[in-house]
Amino acid sequence: MQSAPLMIITNGDVAAGLLRQAVPGAEVLPWRDVLADGPVPMASTIAELSEVRADFLASKGWGDAQALRQIFEARNRGLEQHEMFDQVVLWFEHDLYDQLQLIQILDWFSEHELGERLALVQTQDFIGRRSVEDIAELRALETPVSAEQIEIARIAWRAFREPELYDWSALRDEDIEALPNLEAAVLRQLQELPGTKDGLSRTERTILEAVQSGVQKPVELFSAVQDKEAAPFMGDWSFWDRLDGIANGPDALITGLDDMRFQPDWPDEIRDAYFEREVALSDFGEEVLAGDGDFAERGTIDRWLGGTHVTSENLWRFDRETASLIAPETGQAF
Asked: Which residues on adjacent β-strands are paired with residue 325?
């Protein structure tokens, strides 16, 4: 079978659509997984992990489980077709969302050697916001993937899937500059742990601070929180999930949503009503933001950072002042 000239692997459908226009004839494979949300365990194969991911995304209402499995199966089959191409080029951005996808893909290629046929374009802004004409300039950034980059990604991908966060945090002390955006991504992921003083993740605290400053509507809160990120990584569905987590239940930090929990398949009128609700800090939210309360002690913590299940009983925290990981029970800093 005659090989085709180029396969491009990128983060999602928006970037993929632009790259298809800008690079005619290329086979473009969007990765389509939000690895910063939900469990990413130490599965033995990419197919096994894809099933876990499909089930999680479906549990959030972000798609039908069977349809998601089919999407991941098709993606994985596309990856297996790499031998048909003269070159495979990875196009990824600087943010946490992309960096997690990048280390997963580079880890996969660590067992499928391509040599100089595997290349990488790393951008410092968002591919989907560029023009077709910009892509030609960005292609000048293309460099062969080095053995060092493959090895760093292999170590990082394993660390991310460990059931404890020690190795993931320790990457910040390693020489990982060959993947220049990875250290910032590791830190940003750790910042989603409950804080040592308030029990809030960075995103949760930023939401409360925005509400305190006068931002009242969910749709405006999303923009306000994105504006505080040097490298925004969170899509709107992930954000509504974070917002609902602190706006409902007996220990809610904000009021006004009245047990509305965002669903992607809502009719337009219900979705618009959710976006236009006016929220405010609850009394407990005021206490937590002032440093007089701890959300992790009163609220129910249940979230994943890669392979680590963070719960009220397995309470990993992050000290924002010292940028230290704090282990459960012992309180030891790393």
From this structure: 318
Q: What is the pTM of this model?
A: 0.95
Residue where a domain stops, chosen among 129, 159, 190: 190
Report whether 5 contacts 86 (CB < 8 A): yes
- In angstroms, the CA 330 to CA 334 distance is 11
* Per-residue confidence band for 1, with pLDDT thresholds at 50, 70 and 90: very low
Phi, psi of 303 (to 5 degrees): -150, 165
Element housing 104 (H / E): helix 96-109
CA angle 48, 54, 56 (to 5 degrees): 110
Q: How far apart are CA 2 and CA 4, in angstroms?
A: 7
User: What is the count of structural domains for the chain?
Assistant: 2
CA pair distance 101, 151, nearest whole angstrom: 15
- Say whether both 11 and 142 belong to one domain: yes
CATH number at residue 35: 3.40.50
The predicted structure's pLDDT at residue 331: 82
**5-22, pLDDT tens digit by residue?**
899 999 999 999 999 999
Q: Which domain holds residue 259?
A: 202-300
Q: Point out the domain boundary residue: 137, 159, 190.
A: 190
Q: Return the half-sphere exposure (C-beta side, CA atoms, 13 A cut-off) of residue 188.
A: 22
Q: What is the mean pLDDT of residues 282-310?
A: 95
Residues 119-139 pLDDT 10s: 999 999 999 999 999 998 899
d(CA 180, CA 99): 10
End-to-end CA distance of the chain: 53
Same domain, 9 and 31: yes
3-state secondary structure of 23: coil
Q: What confidence tens digit (pLDDT) does each residue in 79-119 have?
A: 999 999 999 999 999 999 999 999 999 999 999 878 889 99
| 210 and 78 housed in the same domain | no
Counts of helices then strands in the chain (DSSP H, E): 14, 11
